[in-house]
Design goal:
With 229 residues, this protein is an alpha+beta fold. Helix content is 49%, strand content 23%. The protein folds into two domains: 60 residues; 113 residues, Protein Transport Mog1p, Chain A (3-Layer(aba) Sandwich), CATH 3.40.1000. The protein is built from four helices and nine strands.
Amino acid sequence: MLRRLGGHAYRAPKAALEPELRRVSTTTLVVALIITLSLALVCGVVAVWWAAYNRQSDRVASLSREYEKLEHDHHVIGEHFVEQTSRLNAALKEMSGAYERGFARGRQSTTLPAPFKPLWPLVRAGYVVPLSVPRQLRGRPTVAQSHHGYSVHWRGLALYASDRDLLTDWASKAWPATARDVRAGTRTITRIVGPHGTVYAWRERDKTYAVVAQPSSDPLAVPLVRTLG
């Protein structure tokens, strides 16, 4: 540092400048240290915040996945529950219907007219049989049964039931252009004419039935069909 004394320049001794330089260096160092610590603190806070944000984000994503899985499982379980409930209700309904049908058939088998008592096992197997005898039919019928059905014969009239025969088996015996539908109580049956007489045939409960009538007994065929139950 220069000072002017008595018209001459005077340079301050170097030792006098050192304290001032040390103060400047110390201040600069302190400022730099404060800035560094501040930056470190800010970086630390940011790092902690970022780590917490990442953890929270991962947790939210995990919870979201768990919720979606639970929702999917709940939906699947709900569908399975509805399906199983529907199946159970259907099974219960079928079981109840089978019991009622079996009970009704059992009662029918015990109240069959005397000529048809031998047919009670077939009633329980799902066949329909005459529950009464039309008063126009005279004489005791001949009843025969097998593993695949039964037959009942009067003079000039016969009833056949089978779980093997088809309607085409009867239709094939008819003369051309003779088939027509007729009503017999609640049933719609097909009337066909062939060389063996008039045939009234129909399907019911997976079984084929046919009433074969000679011309003199033709008027008795429909009343006989009405007695089947």
